[in-house]
Amino acid sequence: xxxxxxxxxxxxxxxxxxxxxxxxxxxxxxxxxxxxxxxxxxxxxxxxxxxxxxxxxxxxxxxxxxxxxxxxxxxxxxxxxxxxxxxxxxxxxxxxxxxxxxxxxxxxxxxxxxxxxxxxxxxxxxxxxxxxxxxxxxxxxxxxxxxxxxxxxxxxxxxxxxxxxxxxxxxxxxxxxxxxxxxxxxxxxxxxxxxxxxxxxxxxxxxxxxxxxxxxxxxxxxxxxxxxxxxxxxxxxxxxxxxxxxxxxxxxxxxxxxxxxxxxxxxxxxxxxxxxxxxxxxxxxxxxxx
Length: 290
Prior knowledge:
There is one protein chain. Helix content is about 10%, strand content about 55%. By secondary structure, it is mostly beta strands. It folds into two domains: about 20-115, no CATH class; about 125-290, Beta Barrel (Porin), CATH 2.40.160. The strands form three sheets. Strands 8-9-10-11-12-14-15-16 form an eight-stranded antiparallel barrel. The protein has a five-stranded antiparallel beta sheet with strand order 1-2-3-4-5. The protein starts with a helix and ends with a strand.
């Protein structure tokens, strides 16, 4: 069951592929993505491991942007082509043959010739979110013969692209698992992780988490029997791991800048030994934009 859920998480975490269509360019059939649409369109894709860029004019003529190399010098044909198509609208001196540089150039040109055009090129701006949460856990990666659950609470700092199209985020999290008499185990964990939003709607997002680095300050009580005598020992340890712990969660937008969060954590760890208990780590929280 653990392996099945792990596989499902990984499958669901495959990034959403941009819609692409087939085009015939100079006798070559190509699958291309549309990056910018306007008076001048920008198309692109990675073909045979190489980035290739194209522009499409209003009469549906598609031309490739090239930068061939002759005698160890790049010819920069793409610059002269864009200057011709835009009637020398702007200098191409600092224009690079990269997706964002081309997108920004074509986008700015479209905005200059069409007052109804909405800009599509935005530089990345980070957005920060702060959250708190609480819940229960059976600490599935430690010995827990009776599969008991204990309370936990914590906080999280999330960094993501301000552009809502982006599905990627990183987070830093601190959590504390309270001690329970039948388990005699407690820990404070600091972790760093990656989050991919599988569903990224305006009011709701569903995502997969992966904690790739954790630092635990754990305490436990061990009972031993030696020569007919029962002794107890308090053990404290600090452990740094790279466990790749998988989980899933959701954000529900309740106001413009705040969210209710739901999470099912510690479903599987790629590099941690796990007893037979399946995860019962559930949390409910609140998150807001800074």
